[in-house]
Design goal:
4-stranded antiparallel sheet; 16 strands; 36% helix
Amino acid sequence: MEDWAVIRRAHFADGESQRSIAERLGVSRNTVAKVLASEKPPKYERTPTPTSVARFERRIRVLLEENPKIPATVLAERVGWQGSQSWFRKSVTKLREEYRPKDPADRLSYEFGDLMQCDLWFPGVPIPIGDQIITKAPVLVMVAAAPRFSLARMLPTRTTPDLILGMGALIADYGAVPHRLLWDNEAGIGQRGHLTASVTTFAGFIGTKIVQARPYDPETKGVVERTNGYLETSFLPARRFSSPADFNSQLSSFLTQRANMRTIRSLGTSPISLVRRDRDACVALRKSPWAPPSERIRLSRDYYIRVSGNDYSVDPRAIGTFVNVACSLEEVRVTALGKVLAFHERAWGSGRTITDAAHVAIAKEMRTVFQAGQQPSPCDPLYRDLNDYDRHFGVTL
């Protein structure tokens, strides 16, 4: 191709004769004449020859027309193929594309205040948690579709309670509630078109509608998918994190100072300049924040309760009674009869044991009393005479 260009340039641009060009380049004058007569550069084209699958092609096409998803192994059996399976699969793959149903992607437009797209992003960076290193903590990313305004926060888990708490926290930061929240088929949100009971309750509380995209339709939430990619390439590189709190702090600064300040080509402006317009079209944010319902459990003898894979100590004087466990993204609180029995900072990771030294001391004192054969004092607010239950249920002994 390079000689073709040199010959044509020397003759048409510099006026050099065909004979001179042939002598200088060491080629025949016939070659020079052919190059000058050709309007296209030379291209090697291999003469197509029928492959070993060609004689089976008509029968393969008939079967693919009936069922485009039929496995290649079944096709080979039906048509009587005896050759290489890998070569047969490669040939079938090319033919199968002609029979697959087409899935066009529409151009989507977004109204202000209508939609916020949600997704989980897994950065995969090592983050120290005490004596552990976690790498799979999810980051909840939410993007207001019309202004492309991004919010994000790392969560301890991808369970339903933490997803709800994360959505509530980010919506509170945004200061308004979009009319719809769009999710994929995340198990913690719902599956097969049915939202979990907790998610439905949350949506009703804040006054929005949560919808899930159809399977195999990633374009539906392309805005948040592109934001995930942007965070992967523009936020993560060359960063180190000392804790989840440090990760969230750096991420918040990045979103505030860079991501939401940059000009979006499709918008012609920055997301921050369109936020007020989007908020004005949203549902007003409730004054009372979302508070997840507490879980009521009976405290066992080892006076620990388990929350998201970690164990937290509780005042052992409540052993055998029902306690209320309330968990947020930052803390775990245990109460009973209006009294706080435990208050711990929320632990990340799993398999950790968080102990309050005061609880251990109380347990030691109770154990000493028990071994001495003494009875607990009736003045203890958590003590109740078992005869009270007999009288209540009409049991006579």
